[in-house]
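User: Can you predict the 3D structure for this chain?
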Amino acid sequence: MQTDETVNRACAPDDYDVAYHRPAALMDVNMHYCPGCAHSLVHKLLMEVVDELGIQDQTIGIAPVGCSVFAYEYMDIDMQEAAHGRACAVATAIKRLMPDKFVFTYQGDGDLAAIGIAETLHAINRGENILIVFMNNAVYGMTSGQMAPTTLPGMKTTTSPFGRDTKFYGAPMKIAELVAQLPGSSYVTRQVVNSAHGVRKTKQALLKAFEWQKQNAGTCLIEIIGNCPSNWRMTPLEASRFIDEEMVKAFPVGDIKTPDQSLLKPTPENV
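Assistant: Here is the predicted structure, written as structure tokens:
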């Protein structure tokens, strides 16, 4: 029979290798997100990348209006709140005033693809040297799950209770494919975070995007398909399966556009 002494000795910290640390750039606080929500995971990935690149004091994030409106409470970096849909406009000003900083926006599909579509498209068309992290969960999450520009055909929401009728509401907007056609976009990819493999690929994409920004490559956009169990009326496991079975059919995963090395603007690193 084990005694308290043997249990404590077996669990001594020196007996184990630490496999994971919370990123220093991620605040040690409880997040307000619903159980199973993808936002907290993507926050962690972003801050892991910031830590690994050693750019915590050089990074500025733009928080949106939406579920992630309080992102500045969780990311221990300089943050700026933007009016609904105007994150890319704010990021443009910050990057132009401080071109040596790493600037990113963090936006949902309602913020970016609906009220903010004009600011987003024009910033990308100009080739603003920023990273746009676009969270696609197919609904307006913060305001009770209304239909978003990315809501799937037939998908029920509070404003499409009988399912999205594409003849009436139009088809879902494929933002990544849309912005990839603009000359100012450099790196455009779509990833998922409902599996270990997807998480690794998403982190790799974030690393690439910050590296491209360092080289003045133009606008990078990473669309991340996330789940919203609360507004999808599903358990987290059911929501994860829904991504695999439905979401990725409408929004294929993978790189859509990669930078042309010959068009990179000169910097001290690549001259």
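The domain at 31-263 is CATH 3.40.50.970 (Rossmann fold). The chain has a mean pLDDT of 91.
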